[in-house]
Amino acid sequence: MERIEHHASLGGRQEVWQHASTTLGCPMRFGVYLPPAALRGERCPVLYWLSGLTCTEQNFITKAGVQQHAAQHGLIVIAPDTSPRDPDGTLGVANDPAYDLGQGAGFYLDATQSPWAAHFRMESYVVQELPALVETHFPATAQRSLSGHSMGGHGALTLAMRHPGRYASVSAFSPIVAPSQVPWGQKAFAAYLGEDRSAWAAHDAVALIAHAAERLPLLVDQGEADDFLATQLRPELLQAACAAAGHPLTLRLHPGYDHSYYFIASFIGEHVAWHAQALRARLL
Amino acid sequence: MERIEHHASLGGRQEVWQHASTTLGCPMRFGVYLPPAALRGERCPVLYWLSGLTCTEQNFITKAGVQQHAAQHGLIVIAPDTSPRDPDGTLGVANDPAYDLGQGAGFYLDATQSPWAAHFRMESYVVQELPALVETHFPATAQRSLSGHSMGGHGALTLAMRHPGRYASVSAFSPIVAPSQVPWGQKAFAAYLGEDRSAWAAHDAVALIAHAAERLPLLVDQGEADDFLATQLRPELLQAACAAAGHPLTLRLHPGYDHSYYFIASFIGEHVAWHAQALRARLL
């Protein structure tokens, strides 16, 4: 583990670390915000943030303005990269020239298909390896919450439902809610999980809702001026699935807001407050 | 004038505009944040932000988190690019391969030397052309304040002092306060203003303080872990000049903070509040 950036920020410290991931078989970077409470030596609960297509660990930590809210509520914020990486092309990590497949587009699942299965194991990385690392190296409790944007919103919703009891709370901005039914998800799932659609439902939030073992309330914010709303995101499918299953959902549609980090920065404070409340109520 | 970006943001709207600058002889871009009050039709005072070396109009609007504070205080925020530009190399705008001269390094002055004098006229652009444009095309009053970072902190301090009565308030983050005495400033001033140093003092905050026609209070924030502190920034020179001249200065040194936007984001709220108070007190 090597610390490659550190910046004082809102009384705490924003850092970027790099480590050799055994799960992914490549070096990985993640952002860590340590709030003032953590710098004073207190152990703090952790909010994991999953970013969207094309992002690295940098986008959220530089553009969302999360630090002021994490400082206020005493949360550590962990923001991993969005896929395995192989910048020098020496590690055999598969890639694709498209922005929505391969490096930068890990979709927060463990791929089963060649050439992806060897390295594209973002579910195991985010759910197992990364928290184990965080809870060892930083003053973090084992209280965890999960949020994300777009592809990362899909990751947050599906990982929370696939691992009941592991997260105190979950939220999403502009999530892909039904990857099996939209082009981004269909392309990625066909590549990573194969053409047999029976394997897809286990990674599809709308499909998972019906059988969720835990009725963890969902907070979802969606901009109505989002260019991807009707083709890729389709929050009405999540709304219908939650209604049918009796799953608690707070879906907020915001007129005028788009898919950008300006949208995230506008509502991240409310998400952090939502997670902080759930984390504080969570027994260790 | 063409609007090339618009995003809902904190109840207001972050836009980017491009126009043909007659002062600079090239297309120029600037960010405009319109607070909720402006969208409701109220005329709002304007905070101008001047960015540092290598920046465009994008850095401040994406990384500083200024929108929430501008929304709260009802300020329009204008963030211009840092120099004339010539991306296709067809306009004859001079450039230099170094990051600290030429395009991206306008130093907020009107150059007098060849090959810079034809286009590098950022003082006239920021003080005259841009406000005239802003006050015509947006719901802006003629109440103006000025802030900036690093090279842009130099710009804020010098332009406020060179144009007494024009700005209600001025502040700076990590400013170059004595360009005549530090490498960044000496290189730029020799190129833009010539080797005769007698022309430099008129664009040097520390030199201007002694003769300032208006005792506009200065608010300056500086990180103590800033890599450029001892070589390029030297706030102690500003402190001494203000003390000698009886010029009001609030200089805050922040342990641990560096030169990055994480520093700006940590204190931008206090700067916006400072400017809002001065702007509200300003008669039109």
TrEMBL record, chains A, B:
Transmembrane segments: none annotated. One of its GO terms (biological process) is formaldehyde catabolic process. The keyword Hydrolase applies. It holds the Pfam family Esterase. It catalyses: S-formylglutathione + H2O = formate + glutathione + H(+). SUPFAM superfamilies: alpha/beta-Hydrolases. The active site is at residues 150, 226, 259. It comes from the Bacteria. One of its GO terms (cellular component) is cytosol. Its EC number is 3.1.2.12. Keywords: Hydrolase, Plasmid, Serine esterase. Serine hydrolase involved in the detoxification of formaldehyde. Belongs to the esterase D family. This is S-formylglutathione hydrolase. It comes from Vitreoscilla filiformis. The lineage of its organism: Bacteria, Pseudomonadati, Pseudomonadota, Betaproteobacteria, Neisseriales.
